[in-house]
Specification:
CATH class: Alpha Beta
Strand order of the largest sheet: 2-1-3-6-7
Helix content: 40-55%
Number of helices: 5
CATH superfamily: Response regulator
CATH topology: Rossmann fold
Strand content: 15-25%
Structural class: alpha/beta
Order of helices and strands: EHEHEEEHEEHH
Radius of gyration: 15 Å
Number of domains: 1
CATH architecture: 3-Layer(aba) Sandwich
Number of strands: 7
Largest sheet: 5 strands, parallel
Length: 141
Amino acid sequence: MYGPDITILCIDDHWNALIGRKMLLEQSGYCVLEATSADEGLRLFRSHAVRAVVVDYQLPGSSGDLVAARMKAIRPEVPILMLSSFEPLPPKKLRCIDMFLSKSQEVKLLVPSLRKLLSRPKPFFHRWLDEWRGRNGAVRP
């Protein structure tokens, strides 16, 4: 399932890369939120029904792996794709992410990689919780 009802959060402090990524994803039918800092990204993550996150590894005052760890603590079912010019990253930096792309691969692999992440079945508990919320009319966070 792809379309404007799927919101992707992109976090990168380089404005040109962020806007280019936003345009590419919107052309592919996604709704895109953008953030230029870790704090702004976390605020948007908490306040919107984000289905996936694309985060740059190098952020001012933080790093993508730390942002990913905080997001996974909030909503572990949301897939996180990390981008970096540095490769390979040490395995401990990749613990909380679901997929890694080098920025040299990004343009041709970003959309197919996100589709792959979004098409993965959710773990049982999250599927059950979504179904329970739907039956009970609960609002999704």
